[in-house]
Amino acid sequence: MKRIRILLVDDHAVVRLGLRALLEGELDMEVVGEAGNAQEAIRLASQLQPHIVLLDIRLPDRSGIEVCREIRLHHSQSQVLMLTSYVEEDLLTEAIAAGASGYVLKQLSTDELLHAIRTVSHGDAILGPKVTKQLLHQVQRTQREAEGSAFHDLSPRELQVLALVAQGKSNTEIAAELVLSSITARNHVSTILSKLQLSNRIEAATFAVRHHIEHYLS
Fold first, then answer.
1. What is the count of structural domains for the chain?
2. Lowest-confidence region among 37-51, 136-150, 180-194, 197-211
3. Which phi and psi angles does 58 have, rounded to 5°?
């Protein structure tokens, strides 16, 4: 049986001891080395050529993300599974960009950790359940911010007019609902089309729906 060669990187000796005891109880896993800092981790990754580097994201001398980036750059055969005590969105995205194949919390169960190691060893990527939830929240927030920026040139009144355009209302109907003259309503629509660089009301309505204008009405 081909065993998964694992390098443990954590600045806490007790954590490394616990991980070693756990992993060496698995027939398909072998801990080939341990490191307590970034410099030692990079040296051992080069020397031992592990399949998996189980890497703490916070190290005393350098960021685990920097270590991940360097290992992936020079030893692409070694997959990196980031291990952290809590999720920080910026670190999560940086770790993924640095080439990490997984990002899991130290609080996960034994079975979940073993599953993550095996998944990454097969060339797949994995995020722990709580990490996935956090990443989803980040993506959703980024999307909302992008949607909001789509309307940043519009005044509150123009947002109201655009929302009514999206409902298929005519200028006369918009004027009646907002207590405006028909000419003012028409001018608002023209200004909206100009600001959003759209050609007609159908494009305006489509744009408003696509960017969820209902979230931005006061």
1. 2
2. 136-150
3. -120, 120
How many residues are listed for the chain in this entry? 218
Element (H, E) at 31: strand 29-35
14-23, 50-59, 209-218: the lowest-pLDDT one = 209-218
81 and 181 assigned to the same domain: no
Q: Exposed, middle or buried: residue 88 (CB in 10 Å: 0-12, 13-18, 19+)?
A: middle
Structural domain boundaries enclosing 171: 147-216
For residues 56 and 161, membership in a common domain is answered with: no
Distance CA 40, CA 37 (A): 6
The overall pTM is greater than 0.70: no
Q: Are residues 155 and 105 in the same domain?
A: no
CA max distance for the chain: 81
Which residues have C-beta within 8 Å of that of residue 182, sequence separation ≥ 6?
171, 172, 175
Instruction: List alpha helices for the chain, DSSP H.
Output: 13-23, 38-48, 64-74, 89-97, 110-121, 129-150, 156-166, 171-178, 182-196, 201-210
CB 218 within 8 A of CB 175: no
Token representation of residue 158: 């123009």
Q: What's the rounded Cα separation, in Å, for the pair 124 and 102? A: 9
